[in-house]
Design goal:
With about 425 residues, the chain is of the alpha/beta class. It folds into 4 domains: about 1-65 and about 170-190, no CATH class; about 70-165, PrpR receptor domain-like (Rossmann fold, 3-Layer(aba) Sandwich), CATH 3.40.50; about 190-320, Reverse transcriptase/Diguanylate cyclase domain (Alpha-Beta Plaits, 2-Layer Sandwich); about 335-415, Winged helix-like DNA-binding domain superfamily/Winged helix DNA-binding domain (Arc Repressor Mutant, subunit A). It is about 45% helix and about 15% strand. Helix 2 (about 30-35) packs across helix 3 and helix 6 (about 125-140) runs parallel beside helix 7 (about 150-160). The longest helix has 22 residues, at about 170-190.
């Protein structure tokens, strides 16, 4: 690690290096998890720690490693020959694959004999490698061990086994640092690209049909703008209204990608405030024009699959934002694939569910009757009853009792919404 830092200091790299040494390679997983938010790029001293990090991070884009070549093997062989007085004979060696070793040995006119090779992966324990080398030495089959692992090397030394390291050369380290430098430039360029977030409320103009509802529409627009202004502030962006129910936020790509969780929450709030489907498309580009074109393309695809936030990259590649499942009863998440699948499987009309949930949430009531919903949403009572019964069967609503003191006629059934995926209430 000291060698990597020393060589890096001789290069002009616009980076601050933080060191995270470990005694056991398995510690890599915890190091990644504990420092994920404070590190932009990771450089690993070997392939195994890199593989563990890839499995932990799930994305190798920000990870690179220093890969040793046959030079590291030659170094280990020379040290073995010098120390043991044996010319490339009777040794054990561990490698992640046999390809490097075969490449190295094929370049020698002297062909080693009596060599024992152990291949390993990130799932191989260091104890297994230590046992492999030490047993061969104790049986007199080898005169020394050559290993890729510092941990194995140290333990073998403690056991009295002549041990030698396969380590990376200065040239290999410098080559990897040059790759790191290019990655830094790439990430800086991407971070400063233009991002356009385009939001569209589905058929907002049809939501308020009479002239008496004009003020309601204006109040609704104010609430929608409040949500988007708060989001725009978080993204260090600029909000522009592009027509009734259509809004656009300009920001940098870096702020947009870092603010994706906030965007998801804002979209969900727009759905609940408006009671409408909301499409959202995000476009990246080197110019505002190209980013906006990509955002429009993303919006079209988002509207085709409600509940999805679609990105269109600067190269035209389409990416769907990962959905997050949020377990909560009072806050259904319309960007949650599991929740949307539940509605689809139960054949629940998404638009009607949004209208119902938005009405309940915005009016502050906790329970309701079929009559309440049919009157407030101007729906046919029979169809409303059937819809509520379907929600009950799907475990999205439940019957909780009867009206205590009906003004006239028979008492009505009282229901409440629930977001239980397993609960099926049949007493509707």
């Amino acid at each position: 690690m000291e060698r990597i830092i020393h060589i890096a200091e001789g290069l002009i790299l616009d980076a601050i290096f933080l060191t995270f040494p470990y005694k056991k390679v398995r510690e890599t997983e915890d190091i990644i998890k504990n420092n994920m938010n404070s590190v932009d790029l990771w450089i690993f001293s070997g392939r195994i720690s890199y593989n563990i990090a890839c499995r932990t991070e799930g994305n190798s884009e920000k990870l690179i490693f220093i890969e040793h070549t046959e030079a590291g093997i030659f170094k280990g062989l020379l040290e073995f020959a010098h120390t043991t007085g044996t010319l490339f004979d009777q040794f054990s060696i561990d490698e992640i694959s046999t390809s490097h070793l075969e490449t190295a040995l094929n370049q020698l006119t002297i062909k080693p004999t009596n060599i024992f090779v152990k291949t390993f992966s990130e799932m191989t324990s260091t104890e297994e490698l230590i046992s492999f080398h030490s047993q061969l030495w104790e049986l007199g089959k080898t005169k020394g061990a050559i290993t890729c692992f510092e941990e194995v090397y140290v333990h073998l030394k403690e056991l009295g086994v002549p041990a030698f390291r396969i380590s990376t050369s200065d040239i290999e380290i410098q080559h990897t640092l040059n790759i790191l430098s290019e990655k830094i430039k790439t990430f800086y360029f991407k971070d400063s690209q233009v991002a356009v977030q385009l939001f569209e409320m589905d058929h907002l103009e049809n939501h308020f049909k009479s002239s008496k509802q004009t003020y309601q529409l204006q109040f609704l627009e104010l609430k929608l703008k409040e949500t988007l202004i708060n989001l725009s502030e978080h993204l260090n962006g600029s909000l522009i209204e592009k027509g009734l129910g259509r809004y656009l936020i300009f920001s940098s790509r870096g702020d947009c990608e870092r603010g994706l969780p906030k965007i998801k929450v804002a979209v969900n709030n727009l759905i609940l405030i408006s009671g409408l489907k909301v499409g959202v498309g995000i476009g990246f580009g080197e110019t505002v024009f190209s980013a906006e074109l990509n955002a429009n393309n993303a919006l079209r695809q988002s509207k085709e699959r409600f509940g999805s936030i679609i990105f269109v990259q600067e190269n035209g590649e389409v990416v769907e934002a990962k959905s997050e499942h949020i377990e909560t009863i009072e806050f259904p998440y319309f960007n949650d694939k599991d929740f949307m699948t539940k509605l689809k499987n139960a054949k629940i009309n998404v638009k009607h569910y949004i209208e119902l949930f938005a009405f309940i949430r915005n009016s502050g009531i906790k329970d309701f009757t079929v009559k309440d919903i049919s009157v407030q949403l101007s729906k046919d009572e029979r169809n409303t009853r059937r819809f509520i019964e379907d929600l009950c069967d799907a475990g999205l609503a439940e019957y909780i009792g009867m009206e205590p003191n009906p003004v006239r006629g028979r008492p009505r059934r009282i229901y409440k919404l629930t977001n239980s995926s397993n609960k099926v209430v049949k007493d509707c």
